[in-house]
Design a protein that fits this description.
Elements lengths: L4 H20 L2 H17 L7 H21 L1 H4 L4 H7 L5 H11 L3 H12 L4 H8 L3 H26 L1
């Protein structure tokens, strides 16, 4: 017995997601596990005895995929910003505070600021790395600096 992927997705997507999420505790990984489960079904040539057999097989595969996600290199070696910050050595408390403030910027500004000031890349090189124009890099640098100035000025004013 084989059913179309469309039928199985409509029928089991939510329950497979719930099972995978219970294992992963992460939305993106659970979604990936469900997608991989349906891909494995599609690629398998297995014949099933009944609807219950298909359902049980899908659940077992989803659980295994979710467990594999938990065992992946990336999941095991990911660290939080706080943990990463503890490993860094700064010359002064001010430079540490500045770095923390930079890391709090929105991603598109944080990346260009980090590459420009901490990694010493030129505007042209940053544009090539991020696949954006040099003028876009300059705009992001300018806006990122403005956000930093506002954030640091507020904190400076609060200290007075």
């Amino acid at each position: 017995m084989r059913q179309t992927i469309q039928e199985l997705v409509e029928r089991y997507q939510n329950s497979l997601y719930a099972v995978a999420f219970n294992v992963c505790k992460n939305q993106q990984d659970a979604e990936d596990a469900v997608q991989d489960t349906f891909l494995q079904y599609y690629n398998s040539k297995k014949e099933f005895e009944s609807e219950q057999h298909i359902r049980a097989w899908l659940i077992r595969v989803a659980i295994n995929k979710a467990k594999n996600m938990n065992l992946s290199f990336w999941r095991k070696n990911k660290t939080s910003l706080e943990e990463y910050m503890e490993t860094l050595v700064f010359e002064t408390p001010e430079s540490e505070h500045l770095f923390e403030t930079v890391m709090g910027l929105p991603e598109k500004y944080r990346i260009v600021i980090h590459l420009f000031y901490y990694e010493d890349y030129s505007v042209r090189e940053i544009g090539e790395i991020l696949k954006i124009s040099e003028s876009n890099v300059k705009v992001r640098l300018s806006r990122g600096r403005m956000l930093l100035r506002e954030t640091l000025k507020e904190e400076w004013d609060d200290d007075k």
